[in-house]
Amino acid sequence: MPNTYIVTCKKDATPEQVQAAKQHAIDQGGKIGHEYSLIKGFSVTFDSDSIRTLEEHEHIDAVEADQEVKLY
């Protein structure tokens, strides 16, 4: 079953650096889903456990599993 992650790029990342991070995800076998405008980031789906290479990318700040958020 594929896993979806939210990828947040560094705050000072340029549009070209965000694009480079997305291309890196695609090169690792990921499929880009939603591209966010409020944050410099995107969602990516992987069929395998390739997420480690994203966490080490120079323009990426954080990678988190996409999950439902509940407000109490």
TrEMBL record:
Keywords, ordered alphabetically:
Hydrolase, Protease
Q: Which residues form the Inhibitor I9 domain?
A: 4-71
Q: Name one Pfam family in it.
A: Inhibitor_I9
GO MF terms here are:
endopeptidase inhibitor activity; peptidase activity
Q: Which InterPro entries match?
A: PBI_I9, S8pro/Inhibitor_I9, S8pro/Inhibitor_I9_sf
For this UniProt entry, which segments traverse the membrane?
Answer: none
User: Which SUPFAM superfamilies would you find in this protein's record?
Assistant: Protease propeptides/inhibitors
Statement: the UniProt record of this protein carries the keyword Glycosyltransferase: no
GO terms of biological process kind: proteolysis; vacuole fusion, non-autophagic
The record's listing under PANTHER family reads: PROTEASE B INHIBITOR 2
- Family as reported in the entry's similarity comment: Belongs to the protease inhibitor I9 family.
Name of the protein: Protease propeptide/inhibitor
Organism whose genome encodes this protein: Sodiomyces alkalinus (strain CBS 110278 / VKM F-3762 / F11) (Alkaliphilic filamentous fungus)
